[in-house]
Structure formats: C-alpha cells, structure tokens
Design brief:
Blueprint (H helix, E strand, L loop, with lengths): L1 E2 L5 H12 L10 E2 L6 E5 L4 E3 L3 E2 L9 E8 L7 E7 L2 E3 L10 E3 L11 E3 L8 E9 L2 E12 L6 E5 L8 E6 L8 E6 L11 E3 L4 E4 L8 E9 L2 E9 L13
Parallel strand pairs: 1-8, 3-12
Antiparallel strand pairs: 2-5, 4-10, 6-7, 6-11, 7-8, 9-10, 11-12, 13-14, 14-17, 15-18, 16-17, 18-19
C-alpha cells in the first residue's frame, strides 16, 4: 500500500525517530548484500537504480523499516528523507521535489529488496544516498554516491575578427549548458578536410585561431562540444575576401 496524503506527515516524523534514533551497541544482525557498486554517474534525464538488497536472520523479529536519505552535494547540511517503508506501508511523498520520480524498485521491499529507482534525473539529484534497513535487533546502512551530468546543449559558433585576406581571426564555439569537463573540437566540412596549417586550437575554450588567412581557408567549419555523457555541435561559414582598398583622390 502506498500512502501519500498530507495527514501522514506527523506519522512519518514519528517513524523517522523510531528508525534512526537507535541506542548505541545495538546488535547488527541483518546484512545488506548489495555491496559491489557505490558510485554512479548518469546523464540528466536518464533513470538510475540504486541497489539496496538485504538478508534477514532468524533473530530479526521486529517490524521492518527501510529508509532512503538524500544529502545534496551542494548543501551537505540539508539531509532529507525521500522515501520510507514502515509498518507495512510505503511513504513516497516525503520530498515534494521528487514526487513521481522516486520509487522502490520492488513494490514489496519487505521481500529483501529496498533498491531505489529515480526517474528523469536532474543535476540537483547529485549527492549522497543512504539506504537504512532496520529490523530489531538488526540495523544496517549503505551509502551511494550519485553524480548527474548534463550533456552539452545550446552550442553556438561565431567569428571574431576581419575575414579579409592576411588578417588574423578566431572561430569561437561555446555551449550554453554542459557539465565539466567540456572539450571542443573543430573540423572543416567543405573543401580540404584538414584545418589550415597555421591554425591553433584551444580545446578548453573552443577557440580556433586562424592566422594570416587566405581565400583557401574559406569554407564551412564544424565545432563539436563533448563531455562524458554526450555531444552537441554547431557550424559556421568562413568567407575570406580581398582586403578593401581606399582610393584617395589628390586635387
């Protein structure tokens, strides 16, 4: 049974106290068995399953409580419960910002699987997640680090400087969004595929410096911005023209 109505808030607070405030020296009988992966890296918009499977022992006779706590990377002091299983019920409206996105992987977590599904990941989901399982006299917990990376997006190309023969100019490329570390690569997509011999590329800033340009440097240039979770690109046309000549009439 999933409980989501506001009137359960007081009950949730009471259950949190029962689950977390345990006396020192309590026997740890139950075992969390999902110990392999504790660091996850995902792209924004994807889904992640944070594992928390467990085994109970015969001496674990009390009621089963499972609680997931989230500690944001940008605000470690703001520890918050995001979902709970207690007294045979699931409380999954503990955090309004995650309503509809956070679920137990198994709708019956009492069967030994308290793993957590987070849908439509956001950058703000980056942080530490702690699964806490209690069944008196046993209590165990496991921490998992999740990093949500944002793919490059809104990449734009531009030209800085005069497009006249013999001048120096810079092709610029920048993404509006994207998690570090972003890398930029330029290539020619029309005419000769190689970049001009005099060009200098800064992969970190996305700037391609072209010195002493000639008409042979004209063409369409493509920039690809990339990080560990995706790419984005833009193109721009360079049209190198003869230098303008000013005639001065002498009377």
């Amino acid at each position: 049974m999933i409980v989501s109505s506001p009137e359960y808030k007081m009950g949730i607070d009471m259950l949190k106290g029962l689950t977390l405030n345990l006396p020192d020296g309590l026997t740890r009988s139950l075992t969390i068995t999902s110990v392999d992966q504790s660091v996850f890296e995902k792209a924004q918009g994807e889904k992640v399953t944070l594992p928390c499977t467990f085994e109970l022992l015969e001496e674990d006779e009390g009621p089963l409580d499972i609680e997931w706590v989230f500690i944001p990377a940008d605000n470690p002091e703001k520890e918050q419960v995001i979902i709970m299983y207690a007294v045979g019920r699931i409380y999954n409206h503990c955090n309004p910002t995650e309503i509809g996105r956070v679920h137990f992987t198994n709708p019956y977590p009492r069967c030994g699987d308290g793993s957590l599904d987070i849908m439509n990941l956001k950058a703000a989901d980056t942080g530490t997640y702690q699964c806490k399982v209690k069944k008196v006299p046993g209590v165990q917990s496991k921490k998992i680090q999740l990093t949500v990376l944002v793919k490059p997006a809104g990449t734009k190309c531009s030209i800085e400087g005069s497009q006249e023969i013999g001048k120096d100019l810079t092709l610029k490329c920048a993404s509006r969004e994207g998690s570090p570390l972003l890398s930029y690569d330029w290539r020619r997509v029309s005419g000769p595929q190689e970049l001009p011999a005099t060009s200098m590329l800064n992969k970190n800033t996305g700037e391609l410096l072209l010195k002493n340009v000639s008409q042979e440097d004209s063409g369409v240039y493509n920039c690809v911005a990339s990080n560990r979770v995706g790419t984005d690109e833009c193109s721009i046309e360079l049209n190198v023209t003869p230098q303008s000549v000013c005639w001065v009439m002498v009377m």
